[in-house]
Amino acid sequence: MLKTQLEVACKLYNTLLHAEQEEYERNKRTMNKTELRQLALDLRKQNKEFQALHSQVAQQVADRFYEARQRFFDGLANKPKK
């Protein structure tokens, strides 16, 4: 069960990364933390696989993605993993 949740959390992280890339290509802007958290919750509602995660966990995945992206743009970390 834990392995399954980890896999789902990784898929959610990668989905957020893909959505962020699309947002930047379309509108030349990045999403803020609140938008990412809401997107994670919306994805959880729409995707049965993501419903394996509790809503707080989905928001924490979004927070971790946001922090990793900020560290990358600040020059403190490498490119987020795909």
Outline the structure in words.
The protein has 82 residues and is mostly helical. It has one domain (2-73). It has helices spanning 2-27, 33-46, 55-73. The radius of gyration is 13 Å and the shape is globular. The mean pLDDT is 92.
Mean pLDDT: 92
Number of helices: 3
Structurally, how many domains make up the residues? 1
Task: Compute the number of strand runs.
Answer: 0
Unreliable runs: none
The radius of gyration over CA amounts to 13 Å
Describe the biggest sheet? none
Helix-residue proportion:
over 70%
Strand residues, percent:
under 5%
The gross shape turns out to be globular
The topology string of helices and strands comes to: HHH
Give the termini separation: 23 Å
Global structural class? mainly alpha
Keywords: Coiled coil
Protein name: Transposase
Organism: Candidatus Marsarchaeota G1 archaeon OSP_D
Give a short overview.
This is Transposase. This protein has one domain (2-73).
Write the layout of secondary structure elements.
Elements: H1 2-27, H2 33-46, H3 55-73
Give the tags.
82 residues, mainly alpha, 3 helices, 72% helix, globular
